[in-house]
């Protein structure tokens, strides 16, 4: 079974930055896609960013130009650098694959003055 552990969340002011990390352990065959999702209170979980094995990236329109996803295949880790954070980015952030497997606990990101 694959275990996913997210970290790096916290409370930041609008315009601030955070770097999220995802650590995967267990039986992992180097995944083609590594992804970040988020879920705000009362809303559906949404795909935020995706990175393919060759480095191609994809982002939801609301975070383009502000978020950057990267991966470290040797460590089975991937990251989400979040800049110029906005209150609407407040959510629990989760990492996973495509298609998603079991979900971790996520990491809380709160953007507030």
Which strand order do you get reading across the main beta sheet? 2-10-9-4-5-6
Main sheet characteristics? 6 strands, mixed
Cα radius of gyration in angstroms? 13 Å
Give the structural class.
Answer: mainly beta
Strand content: over 45%
* Number of separate strands: 10
Q: What can you tell me about this protein's structure?
A:
The mean pLDDT is about 95. A 6-stranded mixed β-sheet has the order 2-10-9-4-5-6, with no helix packed on it. It has strands at about 5, 10, 20-25, 35-40, 45-50, 55-60, 65-70, 75-80, 90-95, 105-110. With about 110 residues, the chain is mainly β.
Q: How would you summarize this macromolecular structure in one to three sentences?
A:
The protein has 113 residues and is mainly β. It is built from no helices and ten strands. The chain is 0% helix and 50% strand.
């Amino acid at each position: 079974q694959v275990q996913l552990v997210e970290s790096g969340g916290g409370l930041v002011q609008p315009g601030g930055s955070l770097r999220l990390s995802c650590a995967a352990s267990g039986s992992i065959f180097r995944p083609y896609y590594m992804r970040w999702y988020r879920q705000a209170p009362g809303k559906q979980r949404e795909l935020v960013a995706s990175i393919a094995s060759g480095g191609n990236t994809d982002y939801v329109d609301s975070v383009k130009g502000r978020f950057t996803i990267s991966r470290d295949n040797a460590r089975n880790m991937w990251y989400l650098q979040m800049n110029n954070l906005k209150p609407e980015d407040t959510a629990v952030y989760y990492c996973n694959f495509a298609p998603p497997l079991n979900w971790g606990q996520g990491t809380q990101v709160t953007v507030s003055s």
